[in-house]
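Case study B.
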Amino acid sequence: MSELLLPPEHRYAKRIKEQLNEDGSELSILNLGPTHPATHGIFQNILLMDGERILEAEPTIGYIHRAFEKIAENRPFYQITPLTDRMNYCSSPINNMGWWMTLEKLLDIEVPKRAQYLRVIVMELARITDHIICNSILGVDTGAYTGFLYVFQFREKIYEIYEEICGARLTTNMGRIGGFERDWSPEAFRKLDVFLEEFPPAWQEFENLFVRNRIFIDRTVNVGPITAEKAMNYGFTGPNLRATGVDYDVRVAQPYSSYEDFDFIVPVGKSGDTYDRFCVRNAEVWESLSIIRQALAKMPEGNEFHADVPDYYLPPKEDVYTNMESLIYHFKIVMGEVPIPVAEIYHPVEGGNGELGFYLVTDGSRTPYRLHFRRPCFIYYQAYPEMIEGALLSDAIVILSSLNVIAGELDA
Amino acid sequence: MALEAIQIQEKVNEAFGINVFNYNQEKDIFSFESTTDSITALILFLKNDPDLRFHFLTDLCAIHYPDNEFSRQFAVVYHMHNWYENKRIKIKVYIDGENPKIKTISNIFRSSNWMEREAYDFYGIDFIGHPQLKRILNMDEMISFPMRKEFPMEDSGRTDKDDRFFGRTTDNY
Amino acid sequence: MSDSKINMVAPPEGVVGEGFFATKLNDVVGMARANSLWPLPFATSCCGIEFMATMASHYDLARFGSERVSFSPRQADMLMVMGTISKKMAPILRQVYEQMTEPRWVIAVGACASSGGIFDTYSTLQGIDKVIPVDVYVPGCPPRPEQIIDGVMKLQELVRTESVRRRSSPEYQELLASYNIK
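Model:
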């Protein structure tokens, strides 16, 4: 089998020839992926195994490389949000908002407080969906399908809220430069209230299913641990870094969109193993719920939902159809004929998986000169081969799903 | 903020002199340029200096400037972050266009390993001393470096975008 | 049966008499196949997440006889390609298709699988029908779970009416040959 898989000059093939265990057993090569169902995405790992134990792994990525950065160089600024959606598709509103905030930083636009709070709410909802997916799928991988079925209905509830806000479920393409495309409907707030009421007990139950579950603990504690030093050297950010005990969170370090107004803790783990990653994500969901409640309570009066920047904010659709001036503006903005300053900026936001950065270089033309996405998954997935060294094959799957590597973000 | 930009500039200037230049504050990020030869020493210095402590490599990427003069056709951009003082810096290194080469920093920050491979994949920049410099996102058989400005975004083999299907031919534009 | 909420599929047209039921073999086989399509999800990106929603409790694809998600191509009937297929991925998709046994059907879910979608780039395959034959295309980026289910139902319709001889017909051989699949 291994001859079919690898050319004879590959180092694993050579090692199989050389190394023979004392009991006469051979090493073997296992090809995991790229379409293995347990990998939740398209990653290939060629594993050198001694029985059930992994000695070495060689990852191959790029199976859904879609050339986001090249497309971004050919699109006006308004047309780049659909790309950001499709990066980390489990939490697309965070990506959308991150991109708008990058542009607002570039153009020095001050967003009204109410719009900022609305953004915080939608970003935290996105974080909850992201963590729901990650943790429930981790449950599936350890053999607990119940949790997945149970909490996924609440992800549908969040999608219904998104639909009220922007009309889409998954790839939201939400927002505008300076705020939102329209004010949130009362129905959206009502659905949000219902969600805040119904979700916490369910999440508590979900947590109870796992946190003290003997089987789950056996499968996850001390599986794939990583030290804080190593994690930082490998460029970890987000929940995976916090599970190692480092309390770095972009929301706290560099507050954007008024995160400084809210009172929340940054949950940290201790050993950086799979169980800690699970617990950190669980705790973050509670914090997100608390942030949403605070934002709703502190929400300023009125119905301001965007900044007053007619040069960059698309005019209302009904005016575009009836009013010459608006039509001209709409055309100018969509075609990218508005003044864009020459600058180089970097704007980070705390995405579902860590620091999501937008490095934007403009040259005054209608498209970015260069747009680089700092994709957290791409950076921390490098540590995966080292984390699974010496682990069992079934642990490798659990570690992968606890890292929450999203293929779309990994390959861009 | 405790760590001021001027402080960084003084320290770096003291250690590297004319090899590091063009200090300026771009929006919220303090940035400067370095020569290709001193980049590894500079990164190591920034990482290990007890005052500067830029211990986290946030990002590494490359840019292509085909319109620049020959010696500045490519740039490699490093974003570093000091979490203790919460200070970010950006370092830019320009490389020549003929045979872009720069020393790797993958032995200083392991996170740069794949980022350098990505820069190689997109721009063909050779990171000297990189442990495994080969394509990462694209197929190994690919010969072009797709992010260079001269390469088109679209796939040349696409047939359904034929202008004739939209009533556009070269004579009726 | 009368108070059960389970909807049974109506039997095909035929002659009913005392103790017997006569109909065409084609129809019986078609009905059986259509209501036990085992899907092989080939999920690469965003559409895969919507497929998860389709499989999960809210939408529940199992109602359509697709209870068992077969991750082995050899036991699957319906290949659901969800998400962008890059040129690096195309040979793998083809290999998976070749490993499936006849009869096999393919649904291209989402704009990327159908036509490349918004990713008109050097690295993306412009529609999976460049490498394998496709039976049903589902539009949307990503399609809603309802749309995916609609696509499955459309395929069920195709399967129900397909002749048992189709797979050995010269037209079908020609189709496969045009994709260079043996």
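Chain C touches chain B at residues 87-88, 115, 120-124, 126 (CB under 8 Å). The remaining cases will be described in the next quarterly update.
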